[in-house]
DNA sequence: CGCCTAGTTGAGGTAAGTCAATTCACGTGG
DNA sequence: CCACGTGAATTGACTTACCTCAACTAGGCG
């Protein structure tokens, strides 16, 4: 468990050699702590470092000129923070910790060097980035075309699935430090409506979100209700070639 | 102009050497044509090839279980089609041509081989992918937090900016083969409402969309109205800015 | 004790959706 | 050449999902 969460995540995707793990290890330059509510990366900033989240939760968001906020995604341990900012050389969004967080810093130059010298690692990182993009796309679909309750259900399920992959959740539920305001800005609703929708889902016996804990009261009917497809979260990478489970699902 | 649009796009981001251009050239295996309305990639399919769009327009989308469609993005010449599907090894979305299109096919194995043997090319492709992701994020923000008219204005401006980069548009306007139904599914509105919003923008003297042509009647006030920030579309890559050190290491 | 933040609930407003009718351009076959 | 069908755009009338405003509760903490 003191294996870096990122190594664990990438390892689940492709087997990494000793040498590759070593390169990965050397990337983690410095461990830092940031405190809840204090911006880590700011929109428009020219970034020279990305971070890997070790513990705690964060979220990336954009602010519109009229002050509204849209949360793009939440990050949990093992996720990159600001990877896109480094590649694009400027941050198009801000990142803020939800809780106090621990991260390790990765300098842009070290990252590019490591990726060019270790092609398989580059593939693995590219895979991670693609998986993140797939989540953003799914999020987009939800906001664009799902009703409020379905959106909420889908959101809670996706978060649960992601947390399960790093051992922080199960089909029973998970600890969740988010406020209803954060969820509102993530799924494009008002905080008031979030509250109503949560009540509805609770009264229908599907999920309960209370006191920082999400409990799946009836996982299966929630999945059914939310039209939740978790295949896009699968830990299946190129090495696993067209693996049996994928084929089964496609068939 | 018979330069491959992709080479032109990547070239704008970082200067590519002869050798790198040559690798890029060899990627283009086979030129193919697809016809308007016939699926090119299907949701759930296990992909072994991506495509580079040479001419025509396409769109990537997802279908929900209740039959609703959310269009994630439109692709124009120079864009990759299905790059994420290849990296993730399964397509999480479908792609369909809007018009008849010409593409060149890129086999997954060739792509991975080229990227691992030519690190700078990998960086460039990673940059392209990140730029696409930034667009999806901006799209997400629009759907989540902007009103219908602002969303439409922003959408038309973004398309214009992208088309300008490949010489197919200007601040005066551009040819646009999209129907109001496609736009509706892209920006999360009903087709009827799209029509109303277009009328409103036209009557306010900002944009006119008629007969397959978008005309910016007052570009500046449209930008103002839409809160349009085009920085995320900049053709600014690592080479352009802080990059001397980065390049030195990568090279 | 008083203040702040998070959550909860009600009443009423509004942006956008649905349903439906009409027009127009286009192609196709009688 | 015209009748017909089809897909796109347009507009009106009505509905609804979600928002806003506002009041109130409950817990944490200086």
Describe the protein's architecture and organization:
2 copies of one chain form a homodimer. The first copy, chain A, has 251 residues and is of the alpha+beta class. Chain A folds into 2 domains: 5-135, Jelly Rolls (Sandwich); 147-250, Orthogonal Bundle (Arc Repressor Mutant, subunit A), CATH 1.10.10.10. Helix content of chain A is 46%, strand content 20%. Chain A is built from 10 helices and 10 strands. The first copy, chain A, has helices spanning 5-13, 18-27, 83-88, 108-117, 119-145, 148-165, 180-187, 191-203, 219-226, 244-250, and strands at 30-34, 49-55, 58-63, 69-75, 80-81, 94-97, 101-107, 173-175, 207-210, 213-216. Chain A has a 4-stranded antiparallel beta sheet with strand order 1-7-2-5. Chain A has a 3-stranded antiparallel beta sheet with strand order 4-3-6. In chain A, strands 8-10-9 form a 3-stranded antiparallel beta sheet. Chains A and B meet through strand 4, helix 3, helix 4, helix 5 and helix 10 of A and strand 4, helix 3, helix 4, helix 5 and helix 10 of B.
Q: Report mean pLDDT of chain A, rounded to a whole number.
A: 88
What strand order characterises the main sheet of chain A?
A: 1-7-2-5
Strands of chain A, count: 10
Radius of gyration of chain A: 18 Å
CATH hierarchy: architecture of the largest domain in chain A: Sandwich
Shape of chain A: globular
Structural class of chain A: alpha+beta
- Assembly form of the protein: homodimer
Major pleated sheet of chain A:
4 strands, antiparallel
What name is given to the CATH topology of the largest domain in chain A?
Answer: Jelly Rolls
Percent of residues in beta strands of chain A:
15-25%
Distance between the ends of chain A? 36 Å
Task: Classify the helix fraction of chain A into a percent range.
Answer: 40-55%
CATH superfamily annotation of the largest domain in chain A? Jelly Rolls
Order of helices and strands of chain A: HHEEEEEHEEHHHEHHEEHH
Biggest protein-protein interface?
Answer: A-B, 63 and 61 residues
């Amino acid at each position: 468990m003191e294996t870096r969460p990122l190594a664990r995540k990438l390892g689940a995707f492709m087997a990494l050699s000793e040498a590759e793990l070593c390169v990965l290890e050397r990337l983690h330059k410095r461990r830092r702590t940031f405190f809840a509510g204090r911006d880590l990366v700011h929109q428009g900033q020219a970034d020279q470092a990305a971070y890997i989240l070790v513990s705690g939760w964060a979220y990336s968001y954009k602010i519109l000129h009229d002050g509204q906020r849209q949360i793009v995604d939440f990050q949990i341990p093992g996720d990159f923070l600001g990877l896109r900012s480094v590649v694009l050389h400027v941050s198009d969004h801000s990142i803020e910790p939800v809780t106090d967080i621990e991260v390790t810093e990765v300098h842009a130059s070290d990252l590019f060097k490591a990726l060019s010298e270790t092609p398989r690692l580059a593939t693995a990182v590219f895979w991670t980035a693609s998986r993140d993009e797939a989540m953003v796309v799914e999020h987009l679909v939800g906001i664009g075309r799902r009703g409020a309750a379905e959106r909420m259900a889908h959101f809670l399920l996706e978060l649960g699935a992601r947390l399960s992959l790093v051992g922080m959740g199960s089909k029973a539920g998970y600890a969740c430090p988010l406020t209803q305001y954060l969820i509102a800005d993530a799924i494009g609703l008002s905080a008031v409506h979030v509250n109503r929708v949560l009540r509805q889902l609770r009264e229908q016996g599907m999920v309960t979100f209370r006191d920082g804990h999400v409990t799946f009261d009836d996982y299966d009917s929630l999945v059914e209700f939310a039209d939740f497809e978790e295949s896009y979260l699968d830990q299946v990478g190129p090495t696993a070639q067209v693996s049996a489970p994928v084929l089964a699902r496609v068939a």
